[in-house]
Amino acid sequence: MYGNSDEDRQDLLQDMIAQLWKAYPGFRQEAKISTWIYRIALNTAIAGYRKQQRQVFTVAIDAELSIGNENDDAIKTERLNLMYSAIALLTDVEKALVMLYIEDKSYEEMEDILGMTQGNLRVKMNRIKEKLRKQVSQE
What are phi and psi of 103, to 5 degrees? Predict the structure, then answer.
């Protein structure tokens, strides 16, 4: 979600690995290693996103997607593109929350990663869902 192309995502992955390498000596083992890694990676992604500041988000569509049942594939692709466009308009924190939700993280894990209470996370998630519904229905 934080990279517009494969090259951007590869650069971001390298930045994340470098940050993890630098931060590892400071790991205090107060949380699970996966939570700590996720938090470092997320903070690196958000920092990288802020550097890019408002570039137009595009999704490349392969020619292979249009092979087969063109109507169904075209509808699915259009819906997916609409959802990506709507997600791109979210704030950094909202994007992070959506990403965690898509990855089936529990609210407890999200609490550890984002540093918010579960109640606050649930309220934000409901607001994000409503915001995405409105955005997609407008388009």
Answer: -85, 10
The answer to whether 117 and 111 are in contact (CB under 8 A) is yes
Confidence (pTM): 0.52
Nearest to 39 by CA among 54, 53, 27: 27
pLDDT in tens, 65-79: 445 555 677 788 888
Both 47 and 70 in one domain: the answer is no
Q: What residue type is assigned to position 118 of the chain?
A: Q
Residues 70 and 114 in one domain: yes
Domain of 111 in residue numbering reads as 65-139
Residues 44 and 69 in one domain: no
Which value, in Å, is the radius of gyration of the alpha carbons in the chain? 17
What is the b/e burial string over 33-64, where b = at least 16 CB atoms within 10 angstroms of the residue's CB? eebbbbbbbbbbbbebbeeeeeeeeeeeeeee
Residue 133, token pair as written in the block: 């519904």
